[in-house]
Amino acid sequence: MGDYDYLIKFLALGDSGVGKTSFLHRYTDNSFNGQFISTVGIDFKEKKVVYKSAKGGFGGRGQRVLLQLWDTAGQERFRSLTTAFFRDAMGFILIFDITNEQSFLNIRDWLSQLKVHAYCEQPDIIICGNKGDLENRRQVSTARAKQLADQLGLPYFETSACTGVNVEKSVDCLLDLVMQRIQQSVETSSLPLSECRGVSLDGDPNASTSYCANC
Ligand SMILES: Nc1nc2c(ncn2[C@@H]2O[C@H](COP(=O)(O)OP(=O)(O)OP(=O)(O)O)[C@@H](O)[C@H]2O)c(=O)[nH]1
Q: What keywords are assigned to this protein (predicted)?
């Protein structure tokens, strides 16, 4: 039995160079490296957090969560490899670069990929417009990004892996969405166990059959 109550898997996706690796580094190690070393295939980092539901779920008690953060290569040549990992993630951090309009336009393509490969049709997703510190090179306005996110019904954050702005806040938001989903599925037990997967609710990190997603 691990020293945590839940193992939660998130996956970062988006075009090459938008800052997925940097974002996850900032979140897990609170550090930033200006060098660009493009991810080859897939990588992951972990961080332990205590989750407390603002709505008083989980009996009001803090839950020890081991967050596993999967970092995918944005390059097209790794696409079939990286999309194979989508189905095991419970939440998605969809990142574009505010200084690169094409990475913003590609958001819809990434969402279509998610629709095909994620564990359900409506997984929990947040959109992050990264490199918010590069205001003088901005190509996508906050209003435009927010409008798209509103249309899609997804939370939007303007982040900077460089300064750290909104990085933790955005991941906290995604964790809240996923934990609420877990809480609801425990309450309604709407799916038979055979259709459940992902995280152990009984604290056993090796048991992988007790996460029910209401989708
Ligand atoms: N100024 C600034 N630079 C950033 C930020 N985030 C990432 N970068 C830089 O952008 C470049 C690409 O960042 P990565 O994190 O490697 O990008 P990636 O999305 O993981 O790229 P792939 O692995 O190819 O998919 C690097 O030089 C980073 O230092 C940010 O918030 N602000």
A: Acetylation, Disulfide bond, Endosome, GTP-binding, Hydrolase, Lipoprotein, Membrane, Methylation, Nucleotide-binding, Prenylation
Which tokens hold the place of 13? 């996706």
The string of pLDDT tens digits covering residues 140-195 is: 999 999 999 999 999 999 999 999 999 999 999 999 999 999 988 877 765 444 44
Q: ipTM > 0.90?
A: yes
Q: Is the CB of 78 under 6 A from ligand 1?
A: no
- Contact residues for 56 (Cβ-Cβ < 8 A; gap 6+): none
Cα 162 from Cα 23, distance rounded (Å):
8
pTM reported for the whole predicted model: 0.89
What is 41-59 written as a DSSP string?
Answer: SEEEEEEEEEE--TT--GG
Taking CA atoms only, the protein residue closest to ligand 1 atom 8 is 19
For residues 74 and 107, the answer to whether their CB atoms sit within 8 Å is no
Q: Which domains does the chain have, with CATH numbers?
A: 6-189 (3.40.50.300)
- What letter does residue 87 receive in the DSSP assignment? G
What DSSP designation does 196 have? -
Angle at the Cα of 34 from the Cα atoms of 143 and 111, rounded to 5 degrees: 40
**pLDDT tens track for 52-99:** 987 777 877 899 999 999 999 999 999 999 999 999 999 999 999 999
19 C-alpha to ligand 1 centroid (Å):
3
